[in-house]
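A common beginner's mistake is to predict each chain separately and then try to dock the pieces by hand. The better habit, illustrated here, is to supply every component at once so that their relative placement is modeled jointly.
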Amino acid sequence: MLVLVEQSLNGLQFGLLLFLLAAGLTLVFGIMDFVNLAHGSLYMMGAYFAATFVAWTNSFILGILLALGATLLLGIALEFIALRHLYGRDHLDQVLATFGLILFFNDAVRLIWGPAGLSLPLPAWLTVPVQIVPGVFYPAYRLSIIVVALAVAALLYIVVMRTRIGMLIRAGASNREMIGALGINIKLLFTLVFGLGAALAGLAGLMQAPILTVQIGMGENILILAFVIIVIGGIGSIRGAFMAAIFVGMIDTLGRAFLPDLLRMVLSSAAASTAAPALSSMLIYLLMAIVLVVRPEGLFPAAKR
Amino acid sequence: MKSHINVRNVVVALVALGLLLLPLYSAVTGNIFILTLFTRIVIFALAAASLNLIMGYGGMMSFGHAAYLGIGGYAVGILAYEGIGSGFIQWPVALAASALYALVIGALSLRTRGVYFIMITLAFAQMAYYIASGLSRYGGDDGLTIYKRSTFGGLIDLSNRVQFYYLCLFCLFGGVYLIWRIINSRFGMVVRGVRSNEQRMQAIGFHANRYRLVCFVISGTICGLAGALLANNTDFISPAGMYWTRSGELMVMVVFGGMGSLFGPVLGTIVFLLLEEVLSQFTEYWALIMGPLLLLIVLFARGGIMGVLGRFSRG
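With all components supplied together, the output reads:
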């Protein structure tokens, strides 16, 4: 029972991280009609920046804030230099160009930080276990990820649904040409949205960094998960991305935790221990296949344009 | 009558001739390295050509073609590991396994279009990658060494470099010929018609998705053959060979050469792999140059090599 609570929290935490990544991706896609494979690279850069700045400043919070700003600036620079020329283009062109950027970022990181991974040590006040319900302890850091990610999700909701800038973003998503014609500086809006997406990816990366090692290619596997989430949730839909991310995070974590035991009940122990890892990494893809069969447009599709 | 002698066709003919005569050059100069390099290039050209069939002619942007390379390779590797060394069994199994995978993935993925299709083929290929990593009996993450190449009952010796090269080249030319026949057949016309205007084809009475699916399966099967060849070439098979970046590289080769042109992917593969070879001799960080180069090519050289040559031809 205790394990179930703990693993569910882990699933929630992983799901929320995935949401931060998927939200940026789906926002950029929904508004600019742009597929950005390099989104995973921004996630990686966020983690590398955090590891570097925390080591420089000797302060966890300051380092993380600096890293967040650096990823934001990197995203804006990337958009300004390269990506804005790709907006009107074929999706294939965008995929190939951003694939090129992934190659570039991976080797750039290898050149600057070396091939070995970095680690981002936590300050002491974040390593203590917190008692959430009597008898159940949960690491403070993982708990703080949940809190921060939920706060960011809420903030994102308020910004998109309740502010003028959010109104422009939504208007841009439903009709780009029209809001341009109404005198909105659409280039600036795009740059801003891209920067926002980059910062969200960077935030996800730097929050994940203390749990996993910071390494080259860390953004790639999780980017594919983010794609799965967007497919399940419905492209361009932030609400869909949120639901699907929690769903995928839960299924993935709980599957890895409990599938071996469940299989052992029906299979021999040896067969279960060989089948379980493959099956648990397949689970979310199976889920995606089922969603595709039942609702090809995703579970929570954005309103039709 | 339109003249067939133009820059584009001359280049294609010269490249084909060069590929045919390469072992001769290698024997005369004693340069064995170039033969091994080009064996690899020819195999990847076959894979790129198969991808071009669905990307260029069918309008299906598959980001999961590396999966077939892996499946074809694992079919050979696993059978060899289990003591079945005959290529007459290994290769048909490799083709059948690739076709079956393509059928299932295609049936699911073709329910969607555009970006969704790109993401979904990518995700399924990644699933195949995880399955391969989970095959603990066959090396898991570390991969599987193939100690003996496929045998063909004394007909051909795959361990002989020149014979193996010509086998790969035969498969490439055969594959390109097959694709040429397909795209000019009634079936191919329908597939190309569906790419240009799906609704209209549906209205005329063609079941668009069935044609798409068959095309997808043919492409996957040809790529599975490339996988079987590749496994024999490297004597090794591992999940890393079907990682998603490999799929991206195949797409790059197709677009480099010119999507939707018969020989474009072959030229694209030659240029891409030679470039990779040359750059990696200069610097360990070759992707630092290749990445931005790719961006520039996408931005400024539309239609790839074939497109540029075509512009030359028209003067």
